[in-house]
Records
---
Amino acid sequence: MPVYDALYDYMDRIIHVLVRHEQGAAHAAEGYGRITGEPGVCLATSGPGATNLVTGIADAMMDSVPIVCITGQVASHLVGSDAFQEADVMGITAPITKWNYQITDANEIPEVFSKAFHIAKTGRPGPVLIDITKDAQFATFDFSYPKEVKMESYQPTTHPHPKQIELAAELLNKAERPYILAGHGVIIAKAEKDLIRLAEKGGIPVAQTLHGVSIFPTAHPLHVGFLGMHGNYGPNILSNKADVVLAVGMRFDDRVTGRLKDYLPDAKIIHIDIDPAELNKNVQVEIPIVADAKNAIQALNKEIKKRSHSAWIKEFQKCYQLEEKKVIQNECDPKKGKIKMGEAIYKLNELTKGEAIIVADVGQHQMMAARYAKFVKPNSFITSGGMGTMGFALPAAMGAKYALLHPPNGQVSDGKASLDREVICITGDGGVQMNIQELATLAQENLPVKIVILNNDFLGMVRQWQELFFKKRYSMTKIKNPDFVTVAKGFYLQAEKVEKREELMGALKRMLKSKGPYLLDIKVEKEQNVFPMIATGASVDEVRLE
Amino acid sequence: MKQIYTITAFAENRPGVLYRIADLFLRRKVNIESLTVSEIEHTGQSRFTILVHAEPLLVEKLVKQLYRIIEITKVIDSLDQSLIIKEIALIKITAKNLERRREIEQLVHLANGKIAAVNQSYLVVEKTGTEEEIDSLHELLKPFGIKEFVRSGRIVVFK
């Protein structure tokens, strides 16, 4: 209460968005953090307010997203006494925050807040939570914000060891089939251009992880595709042919590596990450480099020789042609039957020309978006990767749109072009219902987020697994959905449903033309599968195309 | 192969650090065999001495993950040969009979222990030493009927 009372005096200077559920607040803060690199902030009350943040905090932890959560707490003399609306927020969030702190004395506020923001956005970014007891909220004190944060115990290594860079360059210069795996760390470090330069100089093909999507413009000749369980065929299968792998800002997640013991059998691995704990965690590497991706890549750029590996790159092209014939053509340009998910993404993309920011939820539509959306600008694809949090996309898209409209101090937006950039939430009929209350927030703020539901009346990804691995026993995956158009209209949003191929383009155009928030419910083929696929426990070279 | 490791962690002395350390061992399913925590000579810093029985590779990962805890300043994992190790044990034995008392006192004296407390019905033996020395005195005293046996967990200094 005292915090909100104080906010009343700052309405002109602090943008506060009243979401409808705390989980929405946490994901919206993530959306803001992902776009700007600055922590998004969410506020919640004590007890249930704070515990509702938990999923969003865990999501930010897994995906290294800077957010600062501020939670209320009962008065300090009541802490630990099972008081009304008391929850052990410090205990609950310790395993899922980069740092958390309980303020019981108002005098701690300036130092703790400056530390919190510093910790959230530096090193490997992550969520920080500050729990403030009620008495500390009521107290008055002399406020002076520390100009700099000094912490003996927290000093992330940002510059690479020169010897390691030298060894890495030596390996890359001698490689016959070098391969770059680029992840989220490249985007966090804003090192996209440096990486493109490195790849071009060394003539090295680059594959992107789920969070790495959009580091390279999709059409770049050295960009070979997306890695992982439903990634592109070539980038997965050819991993095991590479002789030198440079992994930057990625963490060898099990969705990328497949069966570990058969992963990268012939490769010497160079791994750059700012978090030392990621090095040698899943995959044993030859040359570990602890550094900020930008510094490390720039240092490598100086040492790397001009090379070309056209025969090696041709292998990726051949794989792509096969994938195109077996999967992509039918997915993006089917001639008959119901609308397909890939087709919807593909057509949307034709209209946005790859300029939009795509925020994907979790499931089949997410993989389709990662596979078929094309990008021309970096940091344009946001999704919940590590946690795989259904319900992420709608609130995260709100946060992303706010980040464009109100960039943080010191970050100049690119003017109108940036303000006008579309933020499109691609979600499923299952996922959208997990935070659907945020439609009310969109309506109240008249925030022009476009929502595309790829609606197959199933929890599609689970159904796909049931089809492939559980003899089509569709246990509890069929959904009787609400009429999303009526729901959206109930929230005072514009909305439309489309079922026929010939009406799809028109519907997408109307959505993009509309001024405010808009929901488009696209009815897609019910039992469609995402391919290629590496089954759990299979090796990356056992990719299935059908 | 699993080995005994002593993980020594230095951290800012704040509430919640032990919670985060313990949680990490829980997530990795590594049992903490013993744990001692105390403030060290430089004020504001705590020293954690954690004994685990684990694979070397896992210990390496644990150490790196411990560094993720913001308050932690330094973590060192060591094998026993690079440490000077001491532990303290208190052993309470019922002994009303004078002759038995004398026997116990003799044993304790031989084992370089001492009698920390005594009254009409019991003796408390204090033994400082390595884990093995404590184990062997414990074995020797077992026949006398041990009421309580408590050990501190190791503290170490580096060689």
---
Amino acid sequence: MRISILFGGPAGTGPNILTNILGRTLVKQGYFVFYSRDYQSLIRGGHNFNVLTFSDKPIHSNESQVDILVALDKNTEEIHKHELKKKSFVLSGHDENMYYAGRLFKLLGLNFDLLEEEFKELGNRFKENMKEAKEGYDEEKDNLCALKYEKGDSVFMNGNQGLAEGAVKSGIDIYYAYPMTPATSLLGELAERQLEDNLLVLELENEIAVINAGIGSAITGAKTMIGTSGGGFDLMGEGLSLAGMAEIPLVIFLSQRPGPATGVATYTAQGDLNIARHSGHGEFNRVVLAPGDPKECQELTSQSFYLSQVFGIPSIIISDKHLGESFYTVTKKPKITPSRKLTSLTRYNSYEKDEEGSATEDAKIIVANIEARLKKKKEIDNDTKKFDRVKTHGKKNSKNVVVSWGSTKGAILDAIEDLDVEFLQVLYIEPFPQIKKDLEGKNIILVENSATGMLGEVIAEKTGIFIEDKNKILRYDGRPFLHDELKKEIEKRLKK
Amino acid sequence: MMNLNTKTKPTWCPGCYNFQILAGVKNTIAKSGLKKDDFALVTGIGCHAKIFDYLNLNGINTLHGRVLPTCLGVKIGNPNLNVLGFSGDGDAYAEGMAHLIHAARFNSNINYFVHNNQVFALTIGQPTPTTEVGFKDKTTPLGVKTYPINPIRIMLASGASFVARVFADVKQIEYILEEALKHKGFSFIEVIQPCLIFHKETYAQKFYSLDKTGYDKTNFDQAWKKAQEFDYNSVDEKTTIPLGIFYQVEKPVLEEQYPQLADLKKKKIGWKDIKR
């Protein structure tokens, strides 16, 4: 069973609240839910939509066709009619969004009591919501399925909530940011939790201030994290270089959206792998970690804090809009890596420094400093071997292997379910895991939300293995991969 | 007596006014009754920043223009630290101008010195935002065409709660740092620090002390007028340059308004000491 529901309407009409209510209810009933958001860079009007897919088996992505279309305006019906199946249901023609909640619950065979529970949790507009929903519930005569009632203990969360959870579990003290989609929701998540979890969240005048304030706090020994998207990360470049030089523990969240420049502000992409790896002048240590779902967001955030503290390095977590803002059903508890605060206030310098922390131009000291940093690079590589720097999914030892990183994980997992292919998911971009043996002699297929397939470049650089252009499945329209379409693309490239 | 010296041999030019600033800062810290570890030092890039190498306090010699956000981060990291920030005029008024305005807005309890020699000295003599019209160097053979900004007025307009100007003289530095340490909030101190090589104007005989004129430093309108008395541009026999505190008022301090930070202050700890 796999049912897909599209909620569409102008911004401000509440498709999100509707999707959240249904999603939460289904997860509580033990179902697996995935929902992604497609919204424009505007406040009111336009056309926004969410696609919610659920199943009784684990799922991690959406598909190209919908079973139920909830159209909060005429425009939605028009835009999405080509995504309908022959037997799809279209719910439309009503102004109040909770009316649709009622109809949906009836259609899915969900008891009205469950909806009442949700309204109680919402608090405001309880009476009105109940009245509207009841009307819809009573009006709906069709029944698509009768959902079983088994209590689930899964958690329904998006990637940025995973990051917030991971940061708090890692003992974050301070978070600085300047608003930029799609990193902003982490700023909101942490800001809301700041008193309860005792941390400080502050919005500063620009990303340059953000990274430098981050450095200032980090040298006092505070566990400090900052967050931004590509454009803001560019502004942070010089500060990143300073964190590398002065060996400062700083966790940096980089949430990608399509670039270059302002690009497509509210959509998704994986085009910033190279800046995560190379931004900042000079040669210095960093780690770049790429989670692929909210559980990994929690785990890699804790590893990021651990590595930054142990080695005194900037630690970059690279995510994107699709992972950050899509809701996943998290069934297992994350494995949090604890970390101590190992930094104290001494004398830090943006210059090469002597034993007192003062600037130096002494050739011997310069060489010694650089060699100490190079030695640390090896230590980081060794130490990170204890983490899952790469994961394999799908059919073990298949001659076909899909390689990817980050948010494409979900669609790939769903796409390869019954295919003869192994999926190699890279979680550590830097230090890069040894994957040459896993790839040698295989039919390698690259999947990436970019136009150039940057992971392919990294693989070529690190292993000498080049992925053929015809084996690169690249999507660069700002939209995430859909598992059914992706499956077809992978199938075309499989070797028997 | 507290030892604030480092092993580094100063590389400022002989007789540089920066030595006066260094001595004044050292004397005040030594006399303050506070411990070395009660201070954090943040410096930018330029001649001024060499003070980091000659003043043995913890902190960071950071990037050009980024002294103030770094100071803010240090203060938030541990609100019990007395944060001393040092910048040059290039650092404060060119590369870091946005941060300067916002530092006044935040009003975090930071003491900030700008060594204004009206020139980029360490890069051998280019004009800064406070260089006078007509100034020439290798990069500006046609002469500077832009009128200098007035940092005192910018700070007043930005809502700074402590705005002062002194000359680079040991006694004046001692006095103003004592006052700044007492002040709760952002203390902006511009130090007129002539560069003996690239901007030799010392404004000799043109200074006078505001304190000796019965000046009311809580009167904004008066401060606004006084700030215009010297425009950083034209110097003739009539020029007079007021020194001292132009403006000082109590305003809400950033770190006192966040319960998380107020708690650290009360417990005399930083975030580092928070066990989770």
